Amino acid sequence: MTDSIVLVTGGSGFIxxxxxxxxxxxxxxxxxxxxxxxxxxxxxxxxxxxPNLHYFQGDLRKKEDIERFWVPEAKxxxxxxxxxxxxxxxxDPLKLIDIVVxxxxxLLEVANRYGxxxxxxxxxxxxxxxxxxxxxxxxxxxxxxxxxxxxxxSASKGVCEHMMYGNYKHTQLPFSIVRFxxxxxxxxxxxxxxxxxxxxxxxxxxxxxxxxGKMTRCFTYVGDIVDGLIIVADSExxxxxxxxxxxxxxxxIREVIQTxxxxxxxxxxxxxxxxxxxxxxKYEDIIRRVPDVQKAYEVLGWKAKVQLDEGIRRTVxxxxxxxxxxx
Length: 327
Ligand SMILES: NC(=O)c1ccc[n+]([C@@H]2O[C@H](COP(=O)([O-])OP(=O)(O)OC[C@H]3O[C@@H](n4cnc5c(N)ncnc54)[C@H](O)[C@@H]3O)[C@@H](O)[C@H]2O)c1
What we know:
single chain; alpha/beta; Rossmann fold; 7-stranded parallel beta sheet; two-stranded parallel sheet; about 40% helix; globular; binds nicotinamide-adenine-dinucleotide
């Protein structure tokens, strides 16, 4: 996408800010909607004075904010705003549901009015604890009981996916859904496995080994995700489709911690974090989370390029150069 008007919700967040930078570099006029005021949006500090960046501080739960923000000529709307991180959604599932479900409903209503294509950012969490990995896009969703708060995120994102398909039936509004798998890289809030480990190790603290560290994830570098988002938005073949965007290499949490320690040249070790003790029955862990990425490759020609060693090396270097993030 070049020389176009584009909208990005959650543009001051981790993935959103990387996307905004790339869209600006490619010559687009970028309109960001985020609840954080621009002065506090540290992730956008390199581009905050860019002449093609327009920033609107608003709340997805207020339809009038979305209406005031919208630019009718916009070609595409990347919808990234959400409550993110297990700690946040188990502390207030109702707030999560309001922001993700009601916010997305409002947004879709306005997108329908102007015919703006929507790219909806979903998550590998929609598959829940389906043991049949790797997960294809049409794989089953296997969720736990509703009194376990962690499933509120998966359920909310799942409802939004239904909303995209349901809306399309009535309006043919073009949309695509992308499901991200454990994204990491510079600027991520320091409470995810990679970012938290980098943050702790560079602050001379021991990183946390969740339980026995044997659960696996497929960690995807943020630059690969930005490539995927842009390819999806540009592709006619992607309309009405869902794609897994993830690295196919499966890595244990233990290996991640070892990789961070190596990249930071540290021998500080780790401390064990007992998830049952800390989160109680509000939490249920998913042992393996692996995408099948064939569809994204066949339809879009996309696959993750940056492997974990390299991505963590870049993240550690960036963190060392950015004192504000380490605080
Ligand atoms: N990071 C990952 O590993 C990952 C994995 C799967 C899916 N995702 C999805 O990708 C998207 C971006 O995630 P991220 O990691 O960049 O998260 P992030 O928390 O860094 O960014 C989310 C942004 O949404 C904004 N926001 C929250 N509530 C809002 C509201 N009521 N109104 C307006 N803005 C609001 C926040 O201020 C923040 O800037 C999310 O939709 C998330 O569900 C992320």
